[in-house]
Structures are given as C-alpha cells and as structure tokens.
Design a protein that fits this description.
single chain, alpha/beta, Rossmann fold, four-stranded parallel beta sheet, 4 strands, 39% helix, globular
Length: 174
C-alpha cells in the first residue's frame, strides 16, 4: 500500500490536469480498490475511474466461490489465495482490515468502476459482493461477468476470442 501511495503521488504530481484511470488485476485489483479507499480517506485526489480485472478483495478467502468453483478455475488453485494472504498479512485478524480486504470497507465516494470477472473463477464472489456494496453506496459500477471464463482469461490476448472482446469492452467503457 505504501508503494502504491508513493506511486500515486508521483503520478498526480507529474500529470495534475490529466484524466487518470486506475487499473489492476487480481491482487492488483484489490490493491487498486484499497488505494482508492485510502486516497478518499486522506482527502487526496482520486482517479477519474477504475478498471478492475478479477480483483482479489477478500484476503480472508471466506466467500463461497473459493470452494464451489475450486475445481473449474484452471488458473487459480483454491489453495493459492490463502497461501499468498499469509505473505501479505500474516495476522489472520488483520486480513479483515479494509485497506487489506476492501470487501470489508466503505466504498462511498469512490469513482466509477468496471469490474470484469469470469463465472468460473474462485474470485467471482469477491467481485459480486463489491458490486453490490458499491451500488448501495451510490458508486457508479458495472460488474461484467463473463460466461465460461476463468481467472485472468483476458491475459491470453489473441489466443482466445473472449480476451480480445474483454479488452474491447474496456476500451468502450473508458
């Protein structure tokens, strides 16, 4: 988080009058969301919008799809999030802090967001829940759930048609 804050400060110092769209993927998507919450809380400039690809927003890994989709997500083994969470925050109780797991935070006042997630990935509930919370607080958010897609499908570029369509969707949304 501290590195992200430092990078953000440098970006807005170098480009004070530029529209800025923050983007992140997986853990980077969760970090992007947490960063926006911290920027808001500290009264700093927020990005104009955010695009989050399969964001990991719950480091407690407690949502149902961590279990129910474990056998159909070829990119993210069900053991990986818990394993990685230990390295980011070793204290289990601290994993519920909003700057660690944005799913437990207040999303009020965040900029418009697009979340893209596959319906066959273990992080699906993270995106659904963030979308529901954001709408309740008045955030302009679109959660785009891609049928048959797994974690990080969009990284496959021209190898699968859905990756190209996903990036076209982002381009249109921006």
């Amino acid at each position: 988080m501290n590195d992200a804050m430092q990078a953000w400060r440098a970006i807005i110092a170098d480009y004070p009058d530029t529209e800025i769209i923050l983007s992140g993927d997986s853990a980077g998507g969760g970090l992007s969301l947490a960063l926006m919450m911290r920027l808001r809380d500290e009264g700093l400039r927020l990005p104009d919008a955010a695009v989050l690809f399969s964001p990991w927003t719950d480091l407690t890994c407690s949502s149902e799809t961590y279990k129910t989709l474990a056998k159909v997500d070829p990119m993210l083994p069900s053991s990986a999030p818990n394993h990685c969470a230990k390295y980011y925050v070793s204290d289990i109780d601290k994993r519920k802090e909003p700057y660690v797991s944005p799913i437990f935070g207040d999303l009020t006042g965040l900029p418009r967001m697009l979340i893209l997630v596959g319906d066959r990935e273990i992080l699906l509930d993270d995106s659904r829940k963030i979308g529901e919370k954001a709408k309740i607080t008045g955030v302009d958010i679109e959660v785009d759930i891609w049928p048959g897609m797994f974690h990080d499908w969009w990284l496959f570029g021209s190898s699968i048609p859905e990756a190209i369509k996903c990036l076209e969707k982002v381009e249109q949304w921006i």
